[in-house]
């Protein structure tokens, strides 16, 4: 049970105050202490106190020490819960402050609750802070935003992010990641993920060129019911990523994906049961993707495509030699943009049997088995 709003105990026993401040999850601590107390009572019930009152004092002190030891182990095993609120009602006013305060190298999930607000900060989750989960209370009104872009001072694509994730096992829910540099600014990343085993559920990822950068070879990310928008190459990089039931929104004529899949990596970007939408007055000729690197791998499964998707489907980025090496695939595409008979000859239409191979278990299997376990 997570009572993230609770404050550390303030009554007299120092044990309670220390435990609550160490973990931030009072309910778990209380449960741990009750369990520990029951154990201690059974173990020490036969101690005789013939030297009362000194004997009783000694017995109570020993019981308290054991209680503290058991409760600490139980509480720390649950992971911490931190709260961010701009109005001061949480423990921290910025998300970066909460990330910095989170335990280093935690092996259990650390939950950071973010209350509604526009958080203008260039957020970094370093590799030393794995297993962080950022959970907003309202997706559309809990916004992490910045406006850096390539060419602004010494900034380039790799450093233009509003949010950078380097800690493995990261999760995000009910949040908006945004870069507001604008359509004429060039490369301006909203969310840069350079970590393995990350999931994003019910998030918005907003920007223009290069909105979502999935940057790390042989890393894996999972996106569920997210909204991702942009102009040019707005989903790009070299990782393996699965997009389930997402809306992919084009803001002008350009390309959705720019995959840089390594040749020894089985999967790149896999879209399952997604919707491709567009600003209809500005986007009337959009490709499903073009190859940033020669072995780009992109698959669309059972995806509904608007009429902004060009009939030929794909683009070779003026690199005819890449047509021999890319792995561009579709199965069960529908909607006005699914003009399968006119697709480029170097793309592939999967059979039903081939499409069934694109399970989460299989796509996210390497380098070791991983299936995202999303909390309820």
TrEMBL record:
Quickly give the catalysed reaction: [(1->4)-alpha-D-galacturonosyl methyl ester](n) + n H2O = [(1->4)-alpha-D-galacturonosyl](n) + n methanol + n H(+)
Lineage runs: Bacteria, Pseudomonadati, Bacteroidota, Cytophagia, Cytophagales
* PANTHER family the UniProt entry points to: ACYL-COA THIOESTER HYDROLASE YBHC-RELATED, PECTINESTERASE 53-RELATED
Q: Name one GO cellular component term.
A: cell outer membrane
Instruction: Return the Gene3D superfamilies for the record.
Output: Single-stranded right-handed beta-helix, Pectin lyase-like
Q: Which family does it belong to?
A: Belongs to the pectinesterase family.
Q: Active-site residues?
A: 233
Alphabetically list the UniProt keywords. Aspartyl esterase, Hydrolase
Q: What is the protein's name according to its record?
A: Pectinesterase
Question: Do you know which Pfam families this protein is assigned to?
Answer: Pectinesterase (PF01095)
Species whose genome carries this gene: Hymenobacter mucosus
